[in-house]
Amino acid sequence: MSDSFKALVLEQDDAGKTLAEVRDLTVSDLPEGDVTVRVSHSSINYKDGLAVTGKGKIVRKFPMVPGIDFAGTVVESDSPDYQPGDAVVLTGWGVGERYWGGLAGMARVKSEWLVPLPEGLDVVGAMAIGTAGFTAMLCVMALEEAGVVPDDGPVLVTGASGGVGSMAVALLAKAGFEVAAVTGRPENEAWLRELGATQIVPREELTEPARPLESEKWGGAVDTVGGQILANVLASVRYGKAVAACGLAGGIDLPATVFPFILRGIRLQGVDSVMCPKPMREKAWARLARDLSADQLSEVAERISLEQVPQVAEDILKGQVRGRVIVDL
Ligand code: NDP
């Protein structure tokens, strides 16, 4: 095993500022774990943006290798579940927050955090999906579990040009839903329609406080932004239907009333990808591999080097990244 690899390392200075630097590390620098993986690709999610820039309290201890997801090949394993040569993907579990993460050529982790790469998906495709796509799949599954079906009418996706949003648009369209995409970037309209959106809703239509109950428009919704937009979405979902909430790109508050819940029986389904139990992970990954074509994945993702990560981390927090960003290691 070649001993040296590149890693993005975060340190904190005396003033509490986060500093990000690409360094050469060796395998002996890696933390404990029963499986060592040669990471070929990682990706940039909103949470990575918060971690790398230090603009959110994501990193629990320094020095830290960020990167909340990665894909690669097992090189060493003390676990009976994995052999050298196995292709694996990892998202969540506090990796890149409390434990060293994927923005490095090698990672050592607990075997129970890994998912074998499902049939039909390669490592690049797995990182085009990453935490964002996995979360989008969990949102679609949550809506289905709440009984939302295509005949209920269009499903609204907020933050549609982002990683989770764009994957949700593609996955909902594939599942037969009509998709309405909320975006603050009209220049992305054609791209969102290519991904499967049939309606574009300008973000400004949802940013002002609405009435507690508006007319019933949406068969369901995937919300990645929270705040006033989520409150307004709740007010306009059809009777008995559901909203899957997973994000806070627009804020952590929820200035809503209980009316949608008690007068329309609306269900608000929280979605968490980090601690999601393994059986649900495997189910979601198998469906992602089945539902998304290689063409769709390359349409949604751009590729960058490790050295470009600090700049893209700034960009994603400014809402300037479209779709997914794969990091080649
Ligand atoms: P991105 O930055 O890729 O996407 C967020 C999108 O939200 C932007 O592209 C933009 O879309 C929209 N947006 C940004 N700022 C605002 C704003 N102020 N008001 C309204 N809309 C805004 O992030 P990700 O897709 O990686 O993540 C989305 C959210 O989901 C984040 O909050 C993230 O933390 C959360 N998340 C949660 C997970 C979980 O397990 N619960 C897992 C993964 C992500 P547009 O330009 O089209 O309007």
Number of domains: 2
Q: Can you tell me the CATH architecture of the largest domain?
A: Alpha-Beta Complex
> Strand tally, please?
15
Q: What is the CATH homology-level superfamily of the largest domain?
A: Medium-chain alcohol dehydrogenases, catalytic domain
Structural class: alpha/beta
Q: What molecules are bound to this protein?
A: NADPH dihydro-nicotinamide-adenine-dinucleotide phosphate
CATH fold group of the largest domain? Quinone Oxidoreductase, Chain A, domain 1
What form results from the Cα inertia axes? globular
Which range best describes the helical content: under 10%, 10-25%, 25-40%, 40-55%, 55-70% or over 70%?
25-40%
Q: Would you kindly provide a written description of the structure presented here, covering whatever features stand out?
A:
The chain is α/β, with parallel strands linked by helices. The protein has two domains: 4-117 and 295-328, Medium-chain alcohol dehydrogenases, catalytic domain (Quinone Oxidoreductase, Chain A, domain 1), CATH 3.90.180.10; 131-270, NAD(P)-binding Rossmann-like Domain (Rossmann fold, 3-Layer(aba) Sandwich), CATH 3.40.50. The protein has helices spanning 46-53, 123-145, 163-174, 189-195, 227-234, 259-264, 278-291, 294-300, 309-317, and strands spanning 4-12, 18-26, 35-44, 69-77, 87-91, 106-109, 115-116, 155-157, 179-183, 197-202, 218-223, 237-245, 267-270, 301-305, 324-328. The strands form three sheets. Strands 3, 4, 5, 6, 7, 14 and 15 form a seven-stranded mixed sheet that branches. A six-stranded parallel sheet has the order 10-9-8-11-12-13, sandwiched between helices. Helix 1 packs across helix 9 (309-317), helix 2 crosses helix 3 and helix 2 packs across helix 7 (278-291). The radius of gyration is 20 Å and the shape is globular. The two termini are 16 Å apart. The chain binds NADPH dihydro-nicotinamide-adenine-dinucleotide phosphate (NDP). Residues 45-47, 131-132, 135, 159-165, 183-185, 203, 224-225, 229, 246-250, 271-274, 316, 319, 321 line the site of NADPH dihydro-nicotinamide-adenine-dinucleotide phosphate (NDP). Pfam families: ADH_N, ADH_zinc_N. GO terms for molecular function: acryloyl-CoA reductase (NADPH) activity. Residues 142-189 form the Rhodanese domain. InterPro entries: Acrylyl-CoA_reductase_AcuI (IPR014188), ADH-like_C (IPR013149), ADH-like_N (IPR013154), ER (IPR020843), GroES-like_sf (IPR011032), NAD(P)-bd_dom_sf (IPR036291), Rhodanese-like_dom (IPR001763), Zn-ADH-like_protein (IPR051397).
